[in-house]
Amino acid sequence: MSQVEKTKENLQACNCLKCPSYTTSCKIKEMPHNMIDMLKGIENVEGLENLFCAYTKSRCIDEDKGCLCNVCTVHDKYDLEDGHYCITDGGY
User: Fold this and answer.
1) Which of 7, 14, 32 is nearest to 80 (CA)?
2) What is the pLDDT of residues 32-48, one digit of tens each?
3) Which InterPro entries match (predicted)?
4) In whole angstroms, what separates CA 65 from the centre of its chain?
5) Is residue 47 one of the residues assigned to a domain?
6) Looking at the domain assignment, is residue 82 inside a domain?
7) Domain total in the chain
8) Using a CB cutoff of 8 Å and minimum separation of 24, what contacts does 10-13 make?
9) Whole-model pTM?
């Protein structure tokens, strides 16, 4: 398993925002935090509510409603073996 780089390209290819576990209420709740973190530069922040395999688990998601990690191009690009990075420690 390779360490996932915190890049705009990986962020754009990421499936996290499409994941059924990442509910609309979580997206709305975390939007202000994400915007502030994006202004800092994604490579300079510890946690981001997206690209969980490169950052830490979600501050908002607390229930597994499905996982898209295994069909994500980032997951494939870095030969990741695990999934559910949004609710388990193990990313970055």
Assistant:
1) 14
2) 988 888 888 888 888 88
3) Uncharacterised_AF2234
4) 15
5) yes
6) no
7) 1
8) 10/51, 10/54, 10/74, 10/77, 11/42, 11/50, 11/51, 13/72, 13/73, 13/74, 13/77
9) 0.86
